[in-house]
Hints:
Elements: E1 2-6, H1 20-36, H2 50-64, E2 68-72, E3 80-83, E4 111-115, E5 119-122, E6 127-130, E7 142-144, E8 153-155, E9 167-172, E10 178-181, E11 188-191, E12 203-205, E13 209-211, E14 223-228, E15 233-237, E16 244-247, E17 259-261, E18 264-266, E19 278-283, E20 286-290, E21 297-302, E22 312-313, E23 316-318, E24 331-335, E25 338-342, E26 349-354, E27 364-365, E28 368-370, E29 383-387, E30 390-394, E31 401-406, E32 416-418, E33 420-422, E34 435-444, E35 458-463, E36 473-475, E37 482-484, E38 497-509
Parallel strand pairs: 3-6, 4-9, 5-10, 6-11, 7-12, 8-13, 9-14, 10-15, 11-16, 12-17, 13-18, 14-19, 15-20, 16-21, 17-22, 18-23, 19-24, 20-25, 21-26, 22-27, 23-28, 24-29, 25-30, 26-31, 27-32, 28-33, 29-34, 30-34, 31-35, 32-36, 33-37, 34-38
Antiparallel strand pairs: 1-2
Helix pairs in contact: 1-2
Amino acid sequence: MALFTERVAVLSCASADDGSAKACSEEVLRDAAATQKGLPGRPNQCLATLPKRIARLLCATALVGLVFPYAQSPVHAQQLSINTDGAPGDNGDDGIGTADAGDGHSPVAPATGTNSVGRTTSGEAAFVGSARGGRGGDGGSAVHATAVPPFVEIKGGKGGDGAKGGTVDITNNASGALETSGDNAPGISGDAGGGDGGNGAWAFAIAVGGKGGVGGRGGDGGTATVTTTIESNIITHGVNSNGITVNSSGGRGGNGGLGAAIGAGKGGNGGNGGFGGDAKGDNAGSISTDGAFSKGMLVRSAGGVAGDGASGFGIVGNGGNGGVPTIGGNAEGINSGTITTRGDFASGMVVQSVGGGGGDGGGGLGLVGGGGAGTDGNDGRAATGTNTGNITTSGLGAIGMLVESVGGGGGDGGGAIGLVSIGGKASGGGQGDTATGNIGGVIKTGVDGNGGDGAHGILIQSVGGGGGNGGYAIGVAPAISVAIGGGGGTGGKGGVVNVNQAGNGVTVETNGRSASGI
């Protein structure tokens, strides 16, 4: 039996009477002290009536400010979750006319708080702060046998917009370990991502026209901050189980709905992505991970990926255009503590700002078919990493410190099939922004002697996004068909890379092939 103490605070003393509560607590204290010293305890008459005495005992310790010792088997606290996520929007009803969906709801409050005790979990994070925006609902589908007024064109319902993420600001100062086991179980997770847009609904009409619903817009990311103090100790065992994960990405745009008709069918356009918010992680304690892809600390802000346009079918069938993506937010990671990882691609500290990828155009099928256009990828924003502590990795491709600003890739054009078919045009990639590495302390990779290939000590990069692919075009009757493929998109430009010294000095050591120091 393990003996430990805990101060008990109670708000109500309604169950206590006269002075017996204090006397009872003093009796328990004497017996507990004797047990701790290895002395035989005498029968505790107070505990013989335990159900009646519990409230008295608790009240007494609160009133007189006692430290209440009690014996029980060792217990580890379970997950601490501070969750204020917004609720999703309602889906639209199916019917004849347009039935748009409801928008997602904003987080109910900021997710802020401090954890001060050790925690042990399996298959889930030990400490969570989440203020995600709610997802938009999906639009309602529409179908009609004719297309006469007022239903000249049948439209599927629009997807609801995702809500903006809120504020997350959580701190761990526990001297006891936050320890997780199992895959996808980070030590600490802070997430202020925007809600995804809902999908547009399909539409079908026998006569004139059927147009798929437009996808909803993704919500913007909020602000996410995770801090650990010098007392903090984080341990994870499992694949993709980071020590710390911080995210403030924009929500994804919803996909457009399919449009079909005997006459003209038009696929719905994809929804726009949400803007990335600001993300920051600051570690002054100890982090240890054991598993492939289990990074010591990941700080990420990404612009919302645009939704894809949907296909259109009819005598004239046109695919919907991809939605418009958005820029990433600023991302900052700071390590003044100790990070140790064991596993392939388990980098020590990763800081990323990524632009949203463009949406793909939908396909078009008909006597005349036109593919929808892809949209340009958007830009990354500033990414900054600072190390004055110790980072050690063991494994293939496990980079010590990675800081990058990356533009989003351009969307692909939609394909087209028909007597006359024109593939959709692709779009270009977004641009990278400034990536800065402030380097000090000690960084070592491949330290186990069995791995380390491709595990650079430090990699700071700003990369433009790749251009999309043009849509294909297929003529259904080769002798009389016209088929023109869509043009490809251009790649985006990279930005500025800064490398500065931080602190009094720096040591960088690598122990694998194709593993540069910086």
